[in-house]
Amino acid sequence: MPDPNMPDSNDFIAGMNSDSRKSPVRVAFVTRRTSAQVKARDDGGTVMVFPEALFRGAVAIELLLLVLVVFSLFWDAPLEELANPLLTPNPAKAPWYFLGLQELLHYFPPVVAGVLIPGLVVTALIAIPYFQINIEGEGLWSRNRTLRLRMVRITLVLFILFLASFHVWVALAPTLLMVGLMLYSATERHDAGRFHRWLASKPLSFWIMSWFLLSSAVLTLIGTFFRGPGWSFVMPWSGQI
Q1: Is 222 exposed, middle or buried (0-12, 13-18, 19+ CB in 10 A)?
Q2: Which residues pair with 233 in a beta bridge?
Q3: How far are the Cα atoms of 139, 141, 157, 188 from residue 197, in angstroms, in the given order?
Q4: pTM of the model
């Protein structure tokens, strides 16, 4: 039956309306092998960006600000004494969110650790969302298992040689851990448990992001608790940090 809301003529009329639910417009192509029935699901949990979503974001920001103010009233920030321009502390550590980068500066040349690596990370964060944004999140080993296993092994060997050439042994531990979990998830097990099935269902993006977060956490922890005067490796209980 024709839609009573549509015009009688064959021409389409464009109009302005902010509510797409009260006046939806659908164009369907019906062939001999398809049904004319239109299946649609209305998600009741969706809201408009303005003003509902914007209002919720403003409330969340206000609550976070209130919590921070309450914390600041009862606990002081862990600040050191006033800076002395005539005395440079040893070790001179960056804020905690830059300690991972400062740890990389201990191993790599300044151009590599301060420019090349951060530049590649920022470029990847900008470019990756534009590549195959609508792909299905299938498991890494769901197809071409043998070929992908060979590629993982080759990449691991090359990356270990790269780290060994610069003596970056601290980044080797999280790398070996992630590769071990990847190889474990690639094994075919008849009695696979829930953890194995969960790992096997993860795509490549999950493994790359997990390795990046784990490596960043390890570098930050070492720079925070295991670096003393002259950026030497010390134990946290030595009192030299």
Answers
A1: middle
A2: 227
A3: 10, 11, 26, 10
A4: 0.65
Give the Cα-Cα-Cα angle 87, 91, 92 (nearest 5 degrees).
Answer: 65
The pLDDT profile of the chain, 241 residues, written as one tens digit per residue, is 455 555 555 555 555 555 555 555 555 555 666 555 555 555 556 777 788 888 889 999 999 999 999 999 998 877 777 888 888 888 888 888 888 889 988 888 888 888 888 888 888 878 776 765 555 567 788 888 888 888 888 988 898 888 888 888 888 888 889 888 988 888 877 777 888 888 888 888 788 888 888 999 999 999 989 998 888 888 888 877 7
CA distance 163 to 198: 30
Note whether 226 and 236 are within 8 A (CB): yes
Residue bearing tokens 């914007």: 54
3 state SS of 3: coil
CA distances from 94 to 130, 143, 161, 169, 185 (A): 33, 44, 29, 22, 38
In the three-class reduction of DSSP (H, G, I as helix; E, B as strand; rest coil), residue 223 is classed as helix
